[in-house]
Amino acid sequence: MRTWRRIVAWLVVGTGFAIAGCGAEAIQPPEDVPRHDDAGEAEGDGDIPDGRDAEGGEVPDTGPCVPSAEICDGLDNDCDTETDECPPCCGDPSSPEICNGVDDDCDTLTDEGLVQPCGLLVGECREGTRTCVRGAWGDCTGGVEPAPEVCDGLDNDCDGLTDYPTRPCGSDVGVCWEGTETCVAGTWGPCGGAYGGLPVELCNLADDDCNGLTDEDDPGGGGECGTDVGECRPGVRHCRSGTFVCEGETAPASERCDCLDNDCDGETDGSGACPDDYACVSCACTLVCNPDVEFACPAGLACRCGLLPLDPTVCVCRSDPCYDVLCPSCRTCADDGECVPLSCPECQRCDPALGGCEPIACPECQWCDPAAGRCVECPEGTVCAEWGCMPVVEPEDGGTDGSEDAATDETADDVADDAGSDGAAPGVEVIGTGGGGCTCGIDRPGGCRMVAVLLLAAAAAAAGVRRRSPR
Questions:
Q1: Does the predicted TM-score (pTM) go above 0.90?
Q2: pLDDT in tens, 68-125
Q3: For residue 440, what is the DSSP state?
Q4: Among candidates 219, 199, 220, 218, which has minimal Cα distance to 210?
Q5: Torsion angles phi and psi, residue 7, rounded to 5
Q6: Rounded CA gap, 89 and 110, in Å?
Q7: pLDDT tens digits, residue range 267-279?
Q8: Nearest residue to 124 via CA among 138, 109, 143, 105
Q9: Would you list the domain boundaries of the chain?
Q10: HEC string of 146-208?
Q11: For the sheet containing 166-169, what is the strand order?
Q12: Cα Rg, the chain, nearest whole Å
């Protein structure tokens, strides 16, 4: 019974294909439909059981399949166990084939011969082609794609413009900055406005030569630095963190009172070596003193001056070697603590009785010459006076000028009386002793009498002049 049903179905299908006009090839039965050999048995695995489709799925029992023309409705209208097969669902034979994975023109081929142009046809670009493969367009091949624009008079990037007028140039690495160059007649001009850095690196934490490195290779380093004055010793200069440092040197230090030039200024134990009120003497800070002040230094110390080469006027308290040293009369303690003869000023000598220096007492009509340090007589032509040796002065015209204006007949005794009127008795000294001068009296024998007479005569002449009256 099933065999007969299949025969009827094939007749109906064949009639539908003929009506659809798909040609002889379109009415060939599908390969998966069972065929019967001469013995009438179906090829394949056997007959399709009732209630199952060709894939073995359940088929609703709607009664026997009545073949009809196949339409695109998701059903096996022609009872050939295939659903929506071509035709009619493959398309219209008169439709063009498009790239969609469907046999649009019903020639049993899908997306056959579909090739289209691709790419650009602008500037230096050229079109290529691409082919439809399994419903999708492939890559564009055989064309010329856009390229970066260069200054050559051509539109390399195919944007419709030839040779962009400017482009950046130079470098922006480190301290450098870019400039701009202009394309003229297919040739790039010079790079304007750019800064190219320095040919050598500097020690400043900057990339001066624009190579991406900062202060590389110790720029400016390697030389000697520092000083060798005093206690200082030189080192080697190196660039560290953008600045130069002197490594390995002995640098200047604060000055100390140690007989060394600690601050390397060329002076030993200079300013600042000691605190205020102290001076550096012989590698030790010593108290400054005033020699005019009694007890200027503590016990056992003496105020000494002239010990500082830089300032001899400064006096300091030093150990007193004469402390508790007692020397005999006319001897004094020296700086070494030894007793030595007392040295007196000029025209003085030490008096053992007094234990000190006293003026030298000269004989009559002599005086103490500081240059000689002894008593001497006045040279010829001078007389000894209180103020030293004075030239002898004679009265003019023997003391009278022959007129009524002549001096009176005062005698030396009258002059002496006048001298006595000043508090000195007649006949005593009229020239005193002092300042190294000599001692003379008018009534004493020797050369001093003549000196006194001459002096008194000169005084008398002067007195006569004072007593004249006008006529």
A1: no
A2: 877 766 688 888 887 766 655 556 777 888 999 888 888 888 889 999 999 999 999 9
A3: B
A4: 199
A5: -60, -45
A6: 13
A7: 888 888 899 999 9
A8: 143
A9: 1-89, 360-467
A10: CCCCCCCCCCCCCCCCCCCCEEEECCCCCCCECEEEEEECCEECCCECCECCCCCCCCCCCCC
A11: 166-169, 179-184, 187-188
A12: 73
- Please check the confidence at residue 237 and state whether its pLDDT lies above 80: yes
pLDDT digits (tens, 9 = 90+) for 355-375: 788 888 888 777 787 877 788
* Cβ–Cβ under 8 Å, residues 238 and 221: yes
Rounded to whole angstroms, the Cα distance separating 271 from 249 reads: 24
What values do phi and psi take at 4, rounded to 5?
-65, -35
- CA distances from residue 45 to 50, 55, 57 in whole angstroms, order as listed: 15, 12, 16
Looking at residue 290, its pLDDT comes to 93
Distance CA(95)–CA(103), nearest Å, equals 10
Is residue 285 helix, strand or coil? Answer: strand
Vertex 65 angle, CA 60 and 67, to 5°: 140
- Kindly report the number of other CB atoms within 10 A of residue 114's CB atom: 17
Q: How confident is the model at residue 260 (pLDDT cuts 50, 70, 90)?
A: very high
Query: Residues 289, 297: contact at Cβ < 8 Å?
Result: yes
pLDDT at 393: 67
Q: In what order do the strands lie in the sheet with 243-247?
A: 224-225, 235-240, 243-247
- Eight-class DSSP state of 25: G
Question: Model confidence over 313-358: pLDDT tens digits?
Answer: 899 998 888 888 888 888 888 878 889 998 888 888 888 888 788 8
Average confidence score pLDDT of the chain: 74
| 412-420 helix and 447-467 helix, angle to the nearest 10 degrees | 80
Segment holding 368, helix H or strand E: strand 366-369
Alpha-carbon distance of 303 to 316, in angstroms, equals 5
Cβ within 8 Å of residue 150, ≥6 positions away = 156
Q: Are strands 366-369 and 331-333 parallel, antiparallel or unpaired?
A: unpaired
CB 389 within 8 A of CB 400: no
Gap between the Cα atoms of 464 and 82, Å rounded: 188
Identify whether the C-beta of residue 250 lies closer than 8 Å to the C-beta of residue 233: yes
**Residue 341 to residue 336: CA distance in whole angstroms:** 14
Helices marked H in 393-446 — which ranges?
A: 412-420
339 touches 327 (CB < 8 A): yes
Q: Is the pLDDT of residue 56 over 70?
A: no
The per-residue DSSP string of 206-263 comes to S-TT-SS-SSTT-TT-SSEES--STT-B-EEEEEETTEEEEET-B------SSSS-TT
